[in-house]
C-alpha cells in the first residue's frame, strides 16, 4: 500500500512518503584499519506519491563526522570524515511534475577500511548518516529524510586472538608472590568475567587482608592542535576478604561485572575507549601497618553486536563501480517539466 505524502494542519508536506532502506542495518569493518578492505553501503531511496507533486531535484547525501563537545578542559571540535552525494533527479530551471506512483533509486558506495567506527561517549561522537532531500519549487518546503548508519569493527583490533590471556605475575618486595589472570581477552557488555588469582606469602610476619577489583574505563579525546585529553571512570568494583588471617597462600576466583552502561572498546585517531581492571592486594605487617600492592591489567570489552559479528565470517559483498548515478526509474509520462 502506497504511503501518502500529506499536508499537516499547517499546510506543510510531511516526510511520510520518503524512506531510506539499507541492505544491511549494520556495516562491518573486518580487521584493523590498516588491514580492512572496507565494506559496502548500499540500499534504496523510495519515494511514494498518491497525488501529483512538483519537484525540482532529488538527491541523497552520505556524511561521516567527528564531533567533540566543548568543556572547561578542551575546545569544541568538528571534523568531516567522508561525504558523498547521489543526484537522482538533476535540478533544472523548471520544476518537474511527478505523477502518482512509487519511485525507487538504488545507491551504493564502497567505504574505505580505515574509517573509524561509530561511537557515542560522554563528550563526543563519531557518526555517519544519510540525508535524502526532495527539493521543492520556491516558497514550498523541501521534503527531507535522515537515517543514521552504524559502522562497527570486528573483532576488536586491539585484542589479537593469537595473544595469550591477560595475566600478571611476580614477587613484590620479597614479601608476596602473586599470579593474576583472566581466561579470555575480550568480554561482552552485561557479562561478568572471572579474575583468577594466586597469592603466596614469602614473609610469614605478613597477613593477607583482602583483595579489591575495580573495572576502569578510559576515554581519550584527540583534538587537532591540542594535547590529548583523557578521562577515566570506575564503572564496577568488588572486594573479598581473605578467609583465614594465618593463611600463607590464597587461591581464588572473583567475578567482575561489566555494567550495561559501559562503552565498548573503540580505537581511532579521534576518540579511543579502552578498559583495564585494577587489582589491589592489601597486606598487614606484624606491627599493624597496612601495605598495598596495585596491579593494572587490560581487558577488551565489546558490545553484543560486535560479539555476534566476531563469531561470523565476513560476508562477501560485491562492489560495483558506476561512472554516474543510476537512471531514475520514471518514464516521460510520469514526470513532465512545469
Automatic annotation (TrEMBL):
SMART domains xref list: Arrestin_C
InterPro entries: Arrestin-like_C (IPR014752), Arrestin_C-like (IPR011022), Arrestin_domain-protein (IPR050357), Ig_E-set (IPR014756)
Annotated ranges, domain Arrestin C-terminal-like: 172-297
GO (cellular component) term, any one: plasma membrane
Gene Ontology molecular function: any one: ubiquitin protein ligase binding
Gene Ontology biological-process annotations: ubiquitin-dependent endocytosis
A UniProt-annotated Pfam family: Arrestin_C
Protein name per its UniProtKB record: Arrestin C-terminal-like domain-containing protein
Organism per entry: Basidiobolus meristosporus CBS 931.73
Lineage: Eukaryota, Fungi, Fungi incertae sedis, Zoopagomycota, Entomophthoromycotina
Amino acid at each position: 500500500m502506497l504511503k501518502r505524502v500529506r499536508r499537516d494542519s499547517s499546510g506543510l508536506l510531511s516526510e511520510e512518503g520518503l524512506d531510506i532502506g539499507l541492505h544491511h542495518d549494520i556495516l562491518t569493518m573486518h580487521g584493523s584499519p590498516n588491514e580492512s578492505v572496507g565494506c559496502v553501503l548500499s540500499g534504496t531511496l523510495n519515494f511514494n506519491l498518491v497525488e501529483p507533486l512538483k519537484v525540482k531535484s532529488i538527491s541523497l547525501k552520505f556524511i561521516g563526522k567527528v564531533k567533540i563537545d566543548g568543556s572547561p578542559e578542551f575546545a569544541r571540535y568538528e571534523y568531516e570524515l567522508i561525504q558523498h552525494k547521489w543526484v537522482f533527479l538533476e535540478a533544472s530551471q523548471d520544476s518537474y511534475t511527478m505523477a502518482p506512483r512509487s519511485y525507487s533509486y538504488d545507491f551504493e558506495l564502497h567505504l574505505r577500511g580505515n574509517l573509524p567506527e561509530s561511537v557515542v561517549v560522554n563528550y563526543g561522537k563519531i557518526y555517519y548518516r544519510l540525508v535524502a532531500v526532495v527539493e521543492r519549487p520556491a516558497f514550498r518546503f523541501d521534503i527531507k529524510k535522515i537515517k543514521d548508519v552504524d559502522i562497527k569493527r570486528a573483532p576488536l583490533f586491539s585484542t589479537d586472538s593469537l595473544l595469550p590471556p591477560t595475566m600478571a605475575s611476580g614477587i613484590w618486595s620479597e614479601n608476596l608472590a602473586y599470579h593474576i589472570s583472566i581466561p579470555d581477552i575480550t568480554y561482552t557488555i552485561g557479562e561478568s568475567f572471572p579474575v583468577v588469582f594466586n597469592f603466596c606469602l614469602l614473609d610469614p610476619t605478613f597477613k593477607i587482608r583482602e583483595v579489591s577489583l575495580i573495572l576502569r574505563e578510559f576515554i581519550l579525546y584527540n583534538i587537532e592542535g591540542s594535547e590529548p585529553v583523557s578521562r577515566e571512570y570506575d564503572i564496577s568494583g568488588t572486594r573479598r576478604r581473605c578467609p583465614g588471617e594465618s593463611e600463607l597462600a590464597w587461591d581464588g576466583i572473583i567475578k567482575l561485572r561489566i555494567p550495561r552502561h559501559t562503552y565498548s572498546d573503540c580505537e581511532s585517531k579521534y576518540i579511543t575507549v579502552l578498559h583495564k581492571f585494577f587489582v589491589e592486594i592489601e597486606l598487614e605487617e606484624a606491627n599493624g601497618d597496612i601495605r598495598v600492592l596495585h596491579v593494572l591489567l587490560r581487558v577488551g570489552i565489546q558490545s553484543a553486536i560486535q560479539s555476534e559479528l566476531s563469531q561470523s565470517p565476513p560476508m562477501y559483498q560485491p562492489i560495483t563501480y558506476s561512472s554516474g548515478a543510476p537512471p531514475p526509474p520514471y518514464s516521460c509520462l510520469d514526470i513532465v517539466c512545469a
